[in-house]
Structure formats: C-alpha cells, structure tokens
Amino acid sequence: MIRWVKLTLKEENVKDFIAHFDTVKEKINAFPGCRGMKMLSDKDSANVFFTYSEWDTEEDLENYRHSALFGEVWPTVKQWFLKPAEAFSSDVYFDGFSLK
C-alpha cells in the first residue's frame, strides 16, 4: 500500500519543518511495516512537500498513525500548516520501474 500526504506549510515555518523532519525521518522509515518513505519538495512552491511511503498492509499504516511516534510528529508539524494536509492511499496497478 502506498500513502501520499501533501503538506502545505506557512512559508516562515519551512525551515522548522525540515529541521524537525530530519530528527524523525529514520524512525518513521524504520517503523514496523514501513517498506520505506521519501519526502519530496514541490518544484514550483517552496512551501509544499509530499511524503511518499510504502506499507506492507493498511493495518501497519494504522499502527503507525496510532503510535507514540506519530503522536510526537503530527502535533508538531500540524501547527506549521497553511492548509490542512491531504492524504491519499493507493495500491500499485502498474510499476514500470520494476521493469527497468
């Protein structure tokens, strides 16, 4: 399962967000059931970021969302949002990367 989250930050908090993310990224990446994750930045808007994570199961993602780690991360970053986060979950229909 893939989880995308779009984060639109207040411009004055971008550096705070990146600094905080750097303290938790390896913990999130190592969370049980997480196959890996990336944070991407929008090419046109310096205050827009996306997280991309792959999970073994939806239950693993829910375990993370109800974990102490998420309880540390989310309240901290939520205060820096310009807009509410947008989250999308999906399954892979076709993976051309695996064919290369």
What does it look like?
- This protein is α+β, with helices and mostly antiparallel strands and 100 residues long.
- The protein has a single domain, classed as Alpha-Beta Plaits, CATH 3.30.70.
- Helix content is 35%, strand content 28%.
- It contains 3 helices and 4 strands, in the order βαββααβ.
- The protein has a 4-stranded antiparallel sheet.
- α1 runs antiparallel to α3.
- The longest helix has 16 residues.
- The protein is globular and about 40 Å long.
Brief summary of the model shown:
By secondary structure, the chain is α+β, with helices and mostly antiparallel strands. It has helices at 14-29, 58-65, 68-78; strands at 2-8, 34-41, 48-55, 86-90.
pLDDT below 50 for ≥5 consecutive residues: which ranges? none
CATH architectural group: 2-Layer Sandwich
| DSSP strand count | 4
Q: How many angstroms does the end-to-end distance come to? A: 21 Å
Adjacency order of strands in the biggest sheet = 2-3-1-4
